[in-house]
């Protein structure tokens, strides 16, 4: 049971406070949380659950906004974290994004949504299509009416039909002139390459994203050519578990609009599409840097949006870095960013230069870690392939579209 929810800006300011039960949580818990965060550096961002002297704290970070929930009783931590993720997704959907100004400009709607999403500390209504029927999203017309009439509430006086439906995630009886469904495979590659150039870790986190605009109550079946490679699968509530358990087929009645049907991991990949080879040598108070980038395994599609970033060590006084392709920028926080884009066919991109160490330091003892970014449209590097998508309960065949995208996640090259 959650007792309170706080929304904190990146500066630690409490933007919103929602008490959920009769036992009030003092706002001083936010000051304790922020002091704990500062004392631990960036590590608490990886800690979704923190035990304070008086409370259990659950947190997620979205677009610079910390969603913080508090309780004094033990509860399943995944339930609290999943609820905070739902709150963040609903607010982003309603407000068209997430930032401090949007939340402050729409306080009323945010509080109304929280009132409906949780009741006395327990999650209640979290389906976006039901919430949209109960609470009108913000728009210019609603804001003008609230100013003219003095009524700032966006609450509907009728109960949504989906609340009594066996498929509450779907809008009641939607109708479209053109029925369409699009399926996207979106994958992120997480990899670690050690200083010897050996691939220590390489795995894929992927999502099956669906954008459905289908009339009535369609029944869809999605199958893969090689589902045995998938690990740690998670499904949207619309997926029937028995067909997947017996035949590894996704059978579902989709929500209306865009949603995440499934997430998965593919572990122990043995290759990556590009290589990054950094070399650092230091003596006499300077450090020479050389970084080469190229294609290791051609995926058959264009690799673009290639970037290489690294944090200059604190002992570096100045840096002079240039590249034969792309642009190199050194930001105010001592982050060096090399934007390459696409790798040309006639030469391999290279960055080189000199770092000046602080006075009294002969050699560099702390070597940076290089963060690599890239994007590949039209291919899923995990090897996952969609076999077919069947649709039932539709008067005529709809248009079906399939796409794939792979991008870098936490891709690190150590020097």
Automatic annotation (TrEMBL):
Residues spanning the membrane: none
Keyword annotations of the record: Membrane, Protein transport, Transport
Plastid keyword on record: no
Keyword Repeat: no
Family: Belongs to the adaptor complexes medium subunit family.
PANTHER family xref list: AP COMPLEX SUBUNIT MU
Gene name of the encoded protein: LOC103344380
Subcellular location: Endomembrane system
CDD domains the record matches: AP-3_Mu3_Cterm, AP3_Mu_N
Main location: membrane
Tree of life domain: Eukaryota
All copies of domain MHD, residue ranges: 178-414
InterPro entries: Adaptor_comp_med_subunit, AP2_Mu_C_sf, Clathrin_mu, Clathrin_mu_CS, Longin-like_dom_sf, MHD
Stated name of the protein: AP-3 complex subunit mu
Organism for this UniProt entry: Prunus mume (Japanese apricot)
